[in-house]
What does this fold into?
Amino acid sequence: MNDFSAPHIPGTPPRRSATFDEFAIAEIQRAAATGIYDIRGGGAKRKLPHFDDLLFLGASVSRYPLEGYRERCGTDVVLGTRFASKPIHLKIPITIAGMSFGALSGNAKEALGRGATEVGTSTTTGDGGMTPEERGHSQTLVYQYLPSRYGMNLTDLRRADAIEVVIGQGAKPGGGGMLLGQKISPRVAAMRNLPEGIDQRSACRHPDWTGPDDLEIKILELRELTNWEKPIYIKVGASRPYYDVALAIKAGADVVVLDGMQGGTAATQEVFIEHVGLPILAAIRPAVQALQDLGWHRKIQLIVSGGIRNGADVAKALALGADAVAIGTAALIALGDNAPEWEPEYQKLGTTAGAYDDWHEGRDPAGITTQDPVLAARLDPVKAGRRLANYLSVLTLEAQAIARACGKSHLHNLEPEDLVALTIEAAAMAQVPLAGTSWIPGKQATGF
Amino acid sequence: MSVALKLPPRDGVTFDLATDSLRSLNSTLAALAPETNQTAWQILNPRGQHAVAVGVTVPVAITIAGHVGYYCAGMNDGAAITIAGNAGPGVAENMMSGTVHVKGDASQAAGATAHGGMLIIDGNASARCGISMKGIDIIVQGSVGHMSAFMAQSGNLVILGDAGEALGDSLYEARIFVRGKVASLGADCEEKPMNEADRTILAALLDKAGIVADAGAFKLFGSARTLYHFHVDNAGAY
It folds into this structure.
């Protein structure tokens, strides 16, 4: 006879399901209570194969390094050398990704321009047009050409330094957007020609072209409108990078921007962010392969983005074949997003510093992803711009330190042969050998 | 529809795209000073070329003698451009000001995203006429295709003929006047009562376009504004 109440029988501890984990259960409960999906900002938060899964080999007997403080390691990049009569020349291969005035406060946009300009790189407009402050504080400004065409006008098009035709972004390839009414301030509404305070929807396809053949004609128009002076970028979310890059080349791009699923968005469904698209690690080599197959690698420039955090990430992206990287989320963090000093206010919003992602609600304690004038005033654009410039300098110095250790006199001299992978998955995606072997999954091992 | 390709008087500057390049045409137009006295331009033999007379920012009169391809008069900002023929997709796309007059038919996305000015189409316009329009006035003497005025934000779309399916889908504050039949309305588009102020607006638009028509014979369509704030009960409309 069993006596389950007897004290000598061990109790079974509560066991949580790996499938129905804490987040999954909470999301089911939230969905059942509200009937609506969860929307948030940022990029994919789940653990994904990433640059952390790669290592540089560094120099030794078979390679020799460059002296860290004496021998030059170049960092500049020229973008738009294919057709544009005025390509842009940046001092560092780290650019600021497109983020809109509307999603971000005016002070935040100004700070991005200030920081980028201080270190000689570019910043980018977003869905909502170009503000005078942004143009004024950005020495090199890329003007996004989006499906909504909010704020699009000829004057701004002609005073931009480059034009980025946005097909998609890594957080939501194939998706449109929505800027909730809380952020449609009088100024944002006026720029977008919308009533104040309503939810603003952005289409997922361009209104006047469909497919790569049409895109080629659209690019012809943009070039005619701007006297064939400005580099034309095509930005795609990472999904089918080989074919998308090949078609971008065919359509006449000067520069291709490839954004992985870790790249941030202002507001998209959680399920979309986490389940659509590719991590950037898996997308770079197919994109580079398309450029190489068509004879355009290093002639049409490739900018990659999505989860760039430090100089090692920059160096790894360039070693895999990119010409430059773009940062968005990291730039916002450098400005002050998710800073610990606002922890009490993050707590009031039901979150914590480092996890805040309800950028669409416009209640950002740091004053960055908001149109609330009181909150926005918290961000000093001069100081925030300085923080961004510091961060960009550190990224550059870190990438140079790695490149010199690999014996490279320019960041663009980094190559896949400088890398190995820590996991089979990363080896397959990045097409570099598994560490300690000569084996690249899918290819015959060659021996050492 | 058939189009009479009557050439305008040769009393201005003439560009012949059979021999002159598109680049030469557009760069010449872009270089015009606001006070130019070269105010009458003729473009011969467009032969369906794309991006003809785009980005003109001075108040000159341009007549294009023939059919054009994509994006003719794109981003026009002040010129009066007449197309004596048919126009391909995206005619007068993102126009800021001025007038564009298509004597024939227009393909898809006529007047797309345009902020201002007036687009007159004597014939029919294909699908998505006035898509995402942001303040332009579009007058179509014939009929328009499906999804016209999709996500139209502001301005007026006047259709003297019929409208295809899903007219005004996801509409914001643009007005749509239709004299003929409407195949179906898109999400959040509804017929509105037409008051005297609306009739005055319509009559002024018709007068400005040089069209004689009874403003009282039109119906007015606008946004029901149920999609202005996302609500789960409207999820089926998205």
Q: What stands out?
A: Confidence is low (pLDDT under 50) at residues 1-10 of chain B. The CA atoms of residues 124 and 142 of chain B lie 4 Å apart. The two ends of chain B are 36 Å apart (CA to CA). The first strand of chain B starts at residue 13 and ends at 16.
